[in-house]
Predict the 3D structure of the following.
Amino acid sequence: MTSKPDLFTIGHSNLAAERFVALLKEAGVTAVADVRSVPFSRWCPWFSARALAERLGQDGIGYLAFGNSLGGRPRDPTLYSDGIADYEAMAASPEFRAGLEQLLHTMTHHRVCLLCAEREPLDCHRCLLVGRALAEHGLKPAHILFDGRIEPHAATEKRLLRLAGGEEDDLFGDLGARLAEAYRRRAHAVAARLKRPH
């Protein structure tokens, strides 16, 4: 990596608790900002909020809950479009902006890692919503991948463009517009759905 990331993200998936903590320590993380709307895991109970906060505390890593402001499942039904969480509307909401400001303040005291559940950054709002907003603020997020590699957000965006069927160095068309459309398409594919009443 050419420049040091401003913060990290990680998806816990089914990582063993020891491996998860080791990845954080290798990256120099001093606080985890949990951006899960529901900070609970039935399959990996060590990632439920209370157990996780206790486990991290044993290694001197802070735990902060950001799910209410930066979570991917908004409680406000107006932040859904056709039953799918609308990341662009969410990013413009006062709650999200306040959460982002709080996160930026936390970053002045800690080396922060955003936590969510999905293994792949491009399957998760931590990248497609929060990471994008941070990058637009001029910050350099990086994603701790399942195998321990650290992928700069700019490289993740290149993967996103390829996934959307475009090349990042295409001489034709506006890169910003193509990237925005790639974000929109990916978010539509992976964002939370409103549960339909039976």
About this structure: The two ends are 49 Å apart (CA to CA). The helical segments are 17-26, 49-58, 67-70, 87-92, 94-106, 125-136, 153-163, 175-190.
